[in-house]
Write a structure and sequence with these properties.
Layout (H helix, E strand, L loop, with lengths): L3 E10 L11 E8 L10 E4 L6 E6 L2 E4 L12 H5 L4 H9 L4 H12 L5 E10 L2 E11 L2 E10 L6
Antiparallel strand pairs: 1-2, 3-4, 4-5, 6-7, 7-8
């Protein structure tokens, strides 16, 4: 069963939001796998801002894993990199992909979900978004597709 990217909210606050009356808590993207019933498989991950460890318990829900700030059992991008081809790593590095994207690509390859698409870059401008996707065609076969998505609703 394919995994899914979702947001987790941490207790940390980015510096630009610290001095406002109602601070905005940091959110970061994680990749989670599901079991055969479609339930999320719990796992640990590290906040990409403050490095606090979260136990992912459901989609968009986590608990702070207290007393485990130096846990070495959490995978890193370098751990994932070791199992991917150099060409694929170069694409993910060039587009400065987050750990969740690396995990998603690894999951697609591990489960042989060929023809799956992963967004590696997007940029919004003037009511449209330019999207760049990595299409995984095989363990060492892939291509890049781009598309322009119209975001604004055009009147009738």
């Amino acid at each position: 069963m394919p995994g899914i990217k979702h947001l987790i909210q941490c207790h940390c606050i980015l510096p630009q939001y610290r001095n406002i009356d109602d601070p905005i808590f940091h959110k970061f993207i994680v990749f989670s796998k599901m079991d055969s019933n479609g339930d999320l498989i719990p796992r640990l991950c590290r906040c990409n801002n403050c490095e606090v460890i979260h136990k992912i318990v459901d989609f968009c829900k986590s608990e702070i894993a207290r007393g485990s700030d130096s846990l070495d059992g959490i995978s890193s991008v370098d751990d994932i990199r070791a199992g991917l081809s150099d060409g694929l790593c170069k694409i993910l590095d060039t587009h400065e992909c987050d750990k969740a994207t690396w995990e998603q690509v690894e999951d697609i390859i591990d489960n042989k979900e060929w023809e799956s698409k992963v967004i590696i870059s997007k940029q919004s401008f003037g009511g449209s978004t330019q999207v760049k996707m990595l299409v995984v065609k095989g363990s060492d076969m892939f291509k890049i597709e781009t598309s322009l998505r119209q975001d604004d609703i055009i009147g009738t």
